[in-house]
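Exercise 7.
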Amino acid sequence: MLLKVKPLRLEAKKPIVILNKDDAWDLGVKPLDRVELRAGKKREIAIVNIAERFIKTGSIGLYSRVQDDMNAKAGQLLKVIPSEPPESLGFIRKRLAGNRLMPKEISQIIRDVVDERLSEIEITSFVISLYNHKMTMREAAALSRAMALTGETLDLGKKEIYDKHSVGGVPGDNTSILLVPIVAAAGLTIPKTSSRAITAPAGTADRMECLCPVELELEEIKQVVRKTNGCLVWGGAVDLAPADDAFIRIEYPLSIDPMLLPSVLSKKKAVGARYVVIDIPTGRGVKVKTAEEAEELANQFIELGKKLGMMISCASTLGEQPIGYAIGPALEAREALQSIDGTGPPDLIDKAVHLSSILFDFKGIKNSREKVLEILKSGKAEKKLREIIEAQGGDPKIKVADIQIGPKNVRIKSNTNGKVWWISNSAVIEVARAAGAPKDKGAGILFHKKIGDTVRKGDVLFEIFAEKAHKMNRALKIAKKSKFIEVGRRFRMLLEKIPARKEHEELFVLER
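Solution. The predicted structure, written as tokens, is:
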């Protein structure tokens, strides 16, 4: 069938066309079926949508991507024929029925996801099948390999590559900005590719961007690592395991995370990591609630790592409250710069030291904890961080005062004497994001008191920073409503009486 091009000027990542219902009937295609477009030597497979009046009979509406790919002009005739669905769709149906997939079937699904040959509904079906029927370790390994191999890979020509990942959920976790220069200063190679925040007030890439550029090309990353032994860059800029981005877009609105293990380890495999430490924050308000859950997840990471040729060690870390005192990209970058000599918040330093020493243990470095502390206190870690900042295009002489924070500032004071008994991580995240973080780099929260601290009436508990007044007002409203910090003379067993009709929605945390 020959159809006349109608440019739609609509953007979509996937190739989409719109047919009139009568033309679709004649072609024998339904919504989400595929058609092949032909014009001379040009070919394109596109997903079909159907309209009744918007597209007239004899015309075909082209989304901008399809029009560009076909180099099609308005009014041009395209040959349109039905196309068979991708083979991977049959594998997705097989998985939905609860059957296990072979590695070659998983590879085909991942290739079609990356090539954008599958619709959002079809990708959603695959994610739901993994959530409902769980993954075998064999499937998880096949997914990890396929996700790593269908994107860019960082080949540094070395076998001993070190890396670190946190399962996430704890706000204020600056650990990577301290750990990477510590490890690199010891002569170990650690190309740290990090995420931007998905549901948190700041990801490592957001924090580091307050110190230097993080969107580097693959060759630029190689140069930085060869020069300094490490880097702290945004993984999204180099297309590592790109299928994961498609899966995250599905997982987040559904508040499910069935692909955590292959998502994390596919990115580690893509950078050639052989030795990896996984930080598993554990406690109330984070993804992993108990020590038993942490142990189960750790064993899964370790087993999958073996199948992928990686040596993995996991650490269950305290997740009952934020790490350090600063929440939000600029505030956390300031705190990291203040802490790189080992004199920062004790919990931040302790966590960075423990995780770094685990990587040192892989190398066989004796007295690893003492060695890490020596690197911090001697100034070697700070020197290395500034080398990395310079290599990534930043100012190696950057000072804390150079990092701008939001001009709007409100201090929240205690109206009673006592101690801080608990802090809600999920409420902290909600308030900081309402203030503008991570999009507004200067927005966030600065704590003055944390769990166990003695408080007098009138003491400042925390400050909220924002770049815009309306966001500050929104953050204050949420902070007052949520009561995310509890101060009292003694521990209260009864926190709140909950009526039967009251609903509680837990904040879903999804970090990569």
